[in-house]
Design goal:
By secondary structure, the protein is of the alpha/beta class. Helices cover 34% and strands 22% of the residues. Strand 9 (206-213), helix 5 and strand 10 (240-245) form a beta-alpha-beta unit.
C-alpha cells in the first residue's frame, strides 16, 4: 500500500510538471521527466539535453477558506479517478485522456471510502476501457458512485489525464489562498524550500522551484516588494522560481493567459 501511495504521488507530480511546462510555453512532449531517488521531486531533461532539478509545491491548505472541506473531499475523489485512468491508459501505451463528470462528495472522505471507490472504478475500466484503445476512442459507459459520476472518458494525444466538471457552477470556488493575501504564503514557502534544499545532495544541475496555484482565480502579478523579498531569501539557491496557475476544477483545458508568474 505504501508503495502504491508513493506511485500515485509521483504520478500527480508528473502531471503538475507537464502543466508547468505548458504554462511557461514549452512543449511537454519534447521534455523527459525522471523520478530521482532523493530530492528534488523530479528531474527534467530539456530538448537540448540539460538536466534540471524540479521541486514542486502547492499553495493550498485543506482547511482554508469557507468551502475548504468540500474542496478537499472533491480533490481526493477526483484524484482517485484521474490516477486510475492514468494507470489504465498507461498500461496500454495511451498518452492521455479527458474525463467528463462531477464530484458528489461534500464532506471529508475516509480512506476506506476512497479505496472502495478505487476498486470499483478500476473494475469499470477493466470491463469498458477497451473503447479507449482506438485512435479516437471514447468510453461512454457511465460510472456512478455515491462519491462521483464519470459520464465519459475520451482518449487524448496530450499527455496526462484531466477531469473536467460537466456541472458548471455546481461547486463553490476552490479554497486556495486568497489572491490579495498570497504574498505571505509565497514568502513562507520559498523560505521553507530554500532551507530544505540546503540538505539535498549537491549537484551541478540547475534547480527550479515551481509553486502551483490550483485555485479558480488566476494570479497574474505579484507586488514588486514581494518579488524582491523572494529573491533575497532565495539568494541563488534556485535558478528559477515560478508561480503557475493550474486550476483544479475547470471546464476549460486551456485557461487564458497569463498562466504563470516568473519570480526568479
Amino acid at each position: 500500500m505504501a508503495h502504491e501511495s508513493e506511485k500515485r504521488k509521483k504520478d500527480r507530480e508528473c502531471r503538475h510538471a507537464i502543466a508547468l511546462l505548458r504554462c511557461i510555453g514549452e512543449d511537454p512532449a519534447r521534455w523527459e521527466i525522471k523520478e530521482p531517488r532523493e530530492k528534488p521531486d523530479l528531474i527534467l531533461i530539456s530538448p537540448g539535453g540539460e538536466e534540471i532539478g524540479l521541486e514542486l509545491t502547492e499553495l493550498i491548505a485543506a482547511d482554508c477558506g469557507k468551502h475548504g472541506k468540500h474542496r478537499a473531499a472533491e480533490h481526493a475523489v477526483c484524484t482517485v479517478i484521474r490516477d486510475e485512468t492514468q494507470r489504465f491508459i498507461g498500461s496500454h501505451g495511451v498518452a492521455g485522456a479527458r474525463i467528463s463528470g462531477h464530484n458528489r462528495a461534500s464532506t471529508p472522505v475516509q480512506r476506506a471510502e476512497l479505496d472502495e471507490l478505487r476498486g470499483a472504478f478500476r473494475r469499470h475500466l477493466e470491463i469498458h476501457g477497451s473503447a479507449l484503445l482506438d485512435t479516437r476512442g471514447c468510453m461512454r459507459d457511465r460510472f456512478e458512485h455515491n462519491l462521483v459520476v464519470v459520464r465519459w472518458i475520451a482518449r487524448s494525444n496530450r499527455s496526462g489525464v484531466r477531469f473536467d466538471s460537466d456541472m458548471s457552477g455546481q461547486s463553490p470556488p476552490y479554497a486556495g489562498p486568497a489572491v490579495e493575501t498570497i504574498e505571505g504564503e509565497i514568502i513562507d514557502r520559498i523560505r521553507k524550500k530554500c532551507e530544505e534544499a540546503r540538505k539535498w545532495e549537491r549537484s551541478d544541475r540547475a534547480m527550479w522551484l515551481a509553486m502551483r496555484n490550483p485555485g479558480d482565480e488566476p494570479i497574474e502579478t505579484l507586488p514588486p516588494q514581494c518579488v524582491e523579498e523572494a529573491r533575497q531569501i532565495n539568494a541563488g539557491r534556485f535558478t528559477r522560481i515560478v508561480l503557475f496557475n493550474d486550476p483544479e476544477h475547470v471546464a476549460d483545458p486551456c485557461p487564458a493567459l497569463p498562466r504563470c508568474v516568473e519570480i526568479v
